[in-house]
Amino acid sequence: MSSPLIERTTDHFFMCRPVLVPYLASVAAGREDKTLRNTLSQVLGSLNSASFLNNKEVSAASVVVFSSLLPLVHEAVSQSLLKENNPALVTYLSSMQDQTLIKECIKQWCGQGSVLKTWVVNASIPLSPSHSTLALLRSQAAMPHGTVTSATEQVKPVKAAITTEQLAEAKSAWTNPSKLSCDEKVSRQGPVVPVDGEHNVLITSALPYVNNVPHLGNIIGCVLSADCFARFCRLRGDNVLYICGTDEYGTATETKALAEGLTPQQICDKYHAIHSKVYQWFGISFDYFGRTTTEHQTKICQDIFWSLEKNGKISKDSVDQLYCSKCDRFLADRFVEGVCPYPGCGYEDARGDQCDACGKLINAIELVKPRCKLCSTSPEVRSSNHLFLDLPKIEKSLSEWLSTSSKQWTNNAKVICDTWVRDGLKTRCITRDLKWGTPVPLDGFKDKVFYVWFDAPIGYVSITANYTNEWEKWWKNPSQVNYYEFMAKDNVPFHSVVFPSTQLGTGENWTMVNYLVATEYLNYEDGKFSKSRGVGVFGDQAIETGIPSDVWRFYLLYLRPEAQDTAFSWVDLQTKNNSELLNNFGNFIHRALSFVFKFFEAAIPEAKPDESDFMLMAAVNQELKHYTTALANNRQRDGLRAILSITKIGNQYIQEHEPYKLVKPNRTEKEKERGASVIAIAANLVCLVSIIADPYMPEIAKNIRGFLNLSSQQTRLPGHFCCLLPAGHKIQEPKPLIIQIDDETVNKFKEQFAGKAPSEKKAADPAEIAKLEAQIAEQSAKVRKLKESGTASKDEILAEVTILLSLKGQLAALQGVDPAAGGKEKKKKKGGGAGKEQAKVPPASSSVAPATIVNPAEVERLQGLVTEKNRQRIYDSSSIRQEGSRDTLRARLVTVRGAQPAGRVAKQLDTAYRVAVDSAPRRASPAQYSSVSCLARFIPRTGFSLWNIPGIYGGDKLGGLRSEQIPAK
Predict the structure, then answer these.
(1) Rounded Cα–Cα distance for residues 869 and 863 (Å)
(2) Which of 58, 451, 760, 904 has the fewest CB atoms below 10 angstroms from its CB?
(3) Whole-angstrom Cα distance, residue 967 to residue 969?
(4) Is residue 868 packed enough to be buried (19+ CB in 10 Å), middle (13-18) or exposed (0-12)?
(5) 443-499 tens-digit pLDDT
(6) Mean pLDDT within 634-658
(7) Do the bridges between strand 428-429 and strand 380-389 make them parallel or antiparallel, or are there none, so unpaired?
């Protein structure tokens, strides 16, 4: 297929998919979205000129288009949409669907079920409250979960292409298990130190801050992701040390102590215990969970500082800060509040580091009318001397180190680090005028402490020193240690630039991060977690729900935000638990072991596998390889899906062979022997699942080992599916592993964790309104006078304007008016015709363009920048980057145009667009998006793969590409 045709097909695909997926979701749910229908009509109409419509060959282009649009021809509503806008497309899709190979593929994919619902349930749908997979699943009739269902009710057939070599491997693995160390145990004896000749793995997760309880996003972003990997490494025989602890110094601790009427140390003790309890309940397998308020932390941190100072990597400078004379102290960011300095905001309680109203970052000395948070006194600006890490002097060494080390980092970590380093590093202040922190040992600075982000990463080292006196074998041994760091993306700059620069600046032989693993954010339902507003589930609350910890682990790892932000949903948790865990995973375990217990007096029968059994083993080995590769590369979602694929294979195997019928007394000896073999192989597959499930669901894996009458000590991960349970091995009676989550439970928790309802506003006080109006009039006059004087500076005018805007905002709030809505309507122009009806303002979701454009040149320039941002996820152009983020540019463009903010539909389409873009390689150029290898990423993630049709897969139509060249998502 020619490159231009591929590019055009890709363009058509991108046009369709952002609208198509949510539209089909609405159709499947029985509530067709008319707005999306209208939008899709325009898109489908644009496909009339598509060249693939006249191409009768089955090609890569036709694969993409057909698999994307297939559901449209299976529903009356969407059929009419097609006929209205593109009759040629109807003919094309119908002719494609009539081909024998494609018919067979569709039949295998969805069986007798609905093509539309099968497509939508498995497609990647934008996170939108009204067009989500969750809403669709919620609308479908729930499958009864009270009894064990048959595999055909829940598992689609699993077919795998098995080569002769894979079949031979499967036979060898089963008949010669001793060669594969199937019965080796995982041995762990502490303290763990590096061992010569072994694969020594040091794992840290970002130290959780001690001022609050961790929420689900904190847990999956750091400690749970690291735990999953640590457990996997132990399974494969690595020598692993997993270290974490609470980060206890800094302003936030002092602020929390003031809020709760405790000392900082009491706050640290209280929340360290809470964190420890939460992580223990979640099954986080730290080798040691420590804290930073220790003597080791002080000594190691100060030793590192002295090395930096000796090597000339520390500089001194003065910084203007707010000083409270009444409290006799400099005010750190969190100890000062005031009026937000940004025009149009004027929020009166903005903090010294950020405004909660507009979300912008603030320098404390920029606040209008600042006040001390402790005594409310107005502070003064004073100069304070501080110490700086001289990053420009270390920049060359850092760049050389990054050029080799960062290749193995997650993509978002590399991107964030690149943006910091690209424009050159600046000196960074590493001291603060606080009392609670690691004291600075240098004369003249002993009244200060180290800044928390200089101090905190050193906590990994000091916590290890509290664990073992041989800590240097881990931290000053780069040739023998592979170091993995886990964190959320907001911690990346400090771990990719500041901490490595600190290590390099000492000139010592430090173990530095080899693999920096960063996640995106986990949101809660349609918003963010908030302790103050009661939104979202926090660790201590998860314990109280009664839902087992392994279910939480399973679901959080299932939607781990690896490439883009994801969202926790109660309905989705219920769906995944009841379908994937109960009906698939738990169903297979219970069925397989129940047959052993019922028909063979709890003893594993002898297995005499035939060719079909070895085919099964080869298919399992494929998934086992996917599992191992995924986890080794920290694609933990893919690893979990490999486990679920194996249990689906097991369910299908039992369903196809029906061993419970073959072993009945009235059957022949040959049939009974066959039934026994199937049951024995299924039981061994259960044993394999108990091993590979441990990184995800350790308690469930332990329970399965209990059913199998095995030691609680975990078995090493085998390279292939082998005989783990010899004939005659006795098992225990299996019990249900997974509990159904019902609608009542979901509704209760959705309401409980939805947040506090806003309190009703009191009626505005007329006297207060009059007072504010008088203040506004006075302040307006003051601003006018300053502007007319011609002598006032811009800063003086801006300060007074900010106060004026703040007063107007307060008045609007009292009157119940949205300040963003603007003032009173302008008077009609002369000659406008008093009797004429005024034109209605289009709603926010309207696509109507504004009547006038304030500055056409600026609009054109900004539109070009927005387009360029959309095309390039990684911005190589510094001029574009300096213009701001894509969202910033869009906001400016809207302002210049005078348009209203985008409405619901526009937001949904924007979300869908970002989902599509995020699934592409981050560094791919626009031209690369059109390549066949990338094209495969954009096919709906449905499991409906036409790539296996002869003549496409590996054929000339794809330019002879091999399977491994088509990346799986």
Answers:
(1) 10
(2) 760
(3) 6
(4) middle
(5) 999 999 999 989 999 999 999 999 999 999 999 999 999 999 999 999 999 999 999
(6) 96
(7) antiparallel
Q: How far is CA 184 from CA 361, 607, 715, 793, in A?
A: 55, 22, 6, 77
Distance CA(244)–CA(225), nearest Å, equals 13
Tokens, residue 51: 């060249």
**pLDDT, tens only, 689-741:** 999 999 999 999 999 999 999 987 777 899 999 999 999 999 999 999 999 99
E strands within 763-865? none
Provide the H-helix boundaries in 209-333: 216-218, 225-235, 251-260, 264-281, 295-310
775/782 Cα distance (integer angstroms): 10
* HSE, side-chain direction, 13 A CA sphere, residue 88: 13
Contacts for 91 with CB less than 8 Å, ≥ 6 apart: none
- Phi, psi angle pair for 194, to nearest 5°: -60, 145
Specify the length of the chain in residues. 969
Structure tokens at 656: 């196809």
Q: Is 319 strand, coil or helix?
A: strand
Q: Give me the amino acid identity at 579.
A: S
- CB contact set of 752 (below 8 Å; sequence gap of 6+): none
Encoding tokens for residue 882? 């300096």
930 vs 767: which has the higher pLDDT: 767
DSSP structure class, residue 202: E
Q: Does this model's pTM top 0.70? A: no
Q: 3-state DSSP: the chain helix, strand, coil percent, rounded to 5?
A: 55, 10, 35
Cβ-contact 68, 77 below 8 angstroms = no
- Structural domains of the chain ordered from first start: 4-135 (1.20.1050), 200-304+441-543 (3.40.50.620), 583-737 (1.10.730.10)
Can you state the angle between helices 611-632 and 669-692, rounded to 10 degrees?
0
> What is the average pLDDT value for the chain, to the nearest integer?
78
Residue 333 predicted with pLDDT over 60: yes
CA distance 55 to 939: 20
